[in-house]
Amino acid sequence: MSRTLNSTPAADGFWMPAEFEPHAGCWMLWPERPDNWREGAWPAQQAFVQVARAIARFEPVTVGASPAHFGAARSLLPEEIRVVELSHDDCWMRDVGPTFVVDARGAVRGVDWQFNAWGGLQGGLYFPWDQDDLVARKVLEIEGRDRYRAPIVNEGGAIHVDGEGTALVTEECLLNANRNPSLDRAQIEAHLRDYLGVSTIIWLGRGVFNDETDGHIDNLACFVRPGEVCLTWTDDRRDPQYAISMDAWERLHDARDARGRRLKVHKLPAPGPLFMTAAEARGIVPREGSKPRRAGERLAASYVNFYTANGGIVMPLLDARTDRAAAARLRRLFPGRRVVGVPAREILLGGGNIHCMTQQVPVAGLRRKRP
Amino acid sequence: MSRTLNSTPAADGFWMPAEFEPHAGCWMLWPERPDNWREGAWPAQQAFVQVARAIARFEPVTVGASPAHFGAARSLLPEEIRVVELSHDDCWMRDVGPTFVVDARGAVRGVDWQFNAWGGLQGGLYFPWDQDDLVARKVLEIEGRDRYRAPIVNEGGAIHVDGEGTALVTEECLLNANRNPSLDRAQIEAHLRDYLGVSTIIWLGRGVFNDETDGHIDNLACFVRPGEVCLTWTDDRRDPQYAISMDAWERLHDARDARGRRLKVHKLPAPGPLFMTAAEARGIVPREGSKPRRAGERLAASYVNFYTANGGIVMPLLDARTDRAAAARLRRLFPGRRVVGVPAREILLGGGNIHCMTQQVPVAGLRRKRP
Fold it and tell me: Of A219, A302, B113, B343, which has the fewest CB atoms closer than 10 Å, so is most exposed?
């Protein structure tokens, strides 16, 4: 049973736990649309299968597929991965799925943000997005968790939390006029406090250069544990990413989290820069109403876009020149976890990466300390 | 996780429990197609909501709806009923859903019969039926139960069991050339033994007069407990149903169940006879490839088509002249259960009734005696 509640998580004593806390499992969606995924989405599907397999080594995985693709998804995914029918407009479960919240007694509920395809009719990536906007509700029905329907447009990839009262967001996304034009910073903050159960919001400026989500935090920086943040980085001052990362570093350096701590910032050198090739662009079928993808475009590549599983880190492999160093860095950042790399260029070509395509479900029944 | 197993339930020590054993819940589907459900399926949807509500008084109910109808189904059904996306060609969960089987240690698995819309291209009710044939698999994915894909065409409404080794079926359906034309009676029996875990199969002849399923047992007769069967009945010798029920009565009278018992047969007087009115037929939108429904057609009305829930019986109300007597009869047959009647003519107009639209999930973790 999934009731829709009229209160807010904060009012009910709920908050969003950090991704590095224990999971019951992980949800994903199946890539299908030929205007975003080259060559009929076949190469992306192969990559998604590898990501799902990698996560399934650590925790149960469910993949949602549309009615037309259910059979193929079921055949291509191994049996230990659950496949359910779940229509969507594109496959970014992080952004269209629920954001789960917990309370001190171990109850689990879900926040269903309003979704407008990263900008609606002002720069959104496609039209329509009605099936995307139903995904969170459908996941909550299957999970049997009560639902908060948030009164703002937001995406799971636009927020990170430390589980101890702090949220990390970007101005580029959360204050973008194509999300909640009638709300100012203070009003957005109030909603984040209400729906994430946080007390402190750390604002970074812009997200990764040319990130079509309008600068989602989950491609730029994330908590690796309370008090420590990992930030995508480049030392190349001519790269437009340099100023973005430097500004983020400075803001993080000056920030205090909900417990009053200074943050330790770990730089994670970016791959590339990487660009879409002509061969890659050729396989994409343009469609009126969808953002075109063109050869030569800078890809918003970042190793920060990894998924933290139970006992594991599933990270994108993006560039043979930098993959090994990034994996080594993540191994040092997460000493208790096994770091697994999955070739992810095909996912990057579609506009996101491993974190964008996943959504964790926290373990229920766990007694937690209220932040 | 739902693995597909290459063995059979019988070989693995599994069998189908009786419907009157404890349930974990009940699955249904949402009526949608305008060539079967009059007036855009609206009246049928109202009736389905009432059935779902009635069952939900006794056990958890899940309703599957297609992507196009998910939102409406979710709005029309009360929140305590789970709604999931589940495409289908029509809404008869009994026939397209899995038949659940259990073992002595309380494990639960599902049998996924091959489905051909009650006769395929030789008298089936519509074409295509590919989404129907995926329903059982999708239910088993959500339930997380392993799956046997049976090598024969069959429907859940074509079988009843006593949970102690006996199955009840009709020749009209199971031996119909439009189901498994290459298999004879002995081969069908072997498959039923393998997939239902039964040792004794009691064959009745024809099902209810003009039943478009080719005489499903679940409209004609069912076990009310081991050793006792309830049979739809008419005393009117001019009614073609008379000979059918009399033949069934004689076969039941002569039969022995798996434990060697004679059966006690309870007659449940039929409503009607009932016929489709011109007003009712007018609201159906004919479609090439689907069985036409015409004014004046005899409806296959039977009170035997009830659902046995945990502590309850949800029965169809079909005829003001006979409803009360039927309810009283069922109350006497099920002294431990509360009998709830739901107006069901709209369901009958679509070709089935409450038992046809439901599928029970047995409780897991229950130690049971192997039949």
Answer: B343
B91 classed as catalytic? no
A227 band by pLDDT with thresholds 50, 70 and 90: very high
Residue entry with tokens 């409450």: B354
Record: contact B87-A80, CB cut-off 8 A: no
User: How many angstroms separate the CA of residue A132 from the nearest CA in chain B?
Assistant: 11
| CB proximity list for A31: less than 8 A, separation 6 or greater | A37, A41, A44, A45, A48, A90, A91, A350
Q: What is the ipTM of this complex?
A: 0.91
Taking a C-beta distance cutoff of 8 angstroms, is the pair A202, A252 a contact?
yes
Say how far apart CA B344 and CA B354 lie, in whole Å: 8
Q: Does A368 touch chain B (CB under 8 A)?
A: no
Per the listing, tokens 């101890």 go with A164
**Residue B178 · residue B124 · CB < 8 Å:** yes
Contacts of B185 (CB under 8 A, 6+ apart): B171, B175, B203
SS3 of residue A256 by DSSP: strand
Give the whole-angstrom CA distance, residue B337 versus residue B314.
10
Chain A residues within 8 A of B137 when measuring between CB atoms: 74
Q: How far apart are the first and last CA of chain A?
A: 28
- Counted residue by residue, chain A has a size of 371
**The residue count for chain B:** 371
- Pick the residue from chain A with its C-alpha nearest to B142: A84
Nearest to A138 among B84, B138, B141 (CB): B84
Q: What is the pLDDT of residue A216?
A: 98
To the nearest whole Å, the CA of B149 is away from the closest chain A CA by: 14
Listed in order, strand segments (DSSP E) in A78-185 are 82-85, 99-102, 108-114, 147-153, 160-161, 166-170
Is the Cβ pair A70, B144 closer than 8 Å? Answer: no
B80 interface with A at CB cutoff 8 Å? yes
Q: Are A352 and A117 in contact (CB under 8 A)?
A: no
Nearest-angstrom CA–CA distance, A359 and A366: 19
Contact B241, B220 (CB under 8 A): no
Summarize the confidence of residues A345-365 as an average pLDDT. Answer: 98
Residue B369 three-state SS: coil
Nearest to B67 among A67, A74, A79 (CB): A67
Q: Name the average pLDDT for chain A.
A: 97
**DSSP assignment, residue A298?**
B
What pTM was computed for the model?
0.95
CB-CB contact of B226 with B198 (8 Å): no
C-alpha A107 chain-centroid distance:
23
CA distances from B264 to A359, B75, B208, B229, B258 (A): 56, 45, 20, 6, 14
* B82 → closest Cβ in A67, A83, A141: A141
Burial of A47 (0-12, 13-18, 19+ CB in 10 A): buried
Touching check for A82 and chain B: CB below 8 Å? Answer: yes
- For B182-210, b/e burial (b = at least 16 CB within 10 A) is ebeeeebbebbbbbbbbbbbbbbbbbbbe
Residues B175, B179: Cα–Cα separation, whole Å: 7
pLDDT, one tens digit per residue, over A251-305 is 999 999 999 999 999 999 999 999 999 999 999 999 999 999 999 999 999 999 9
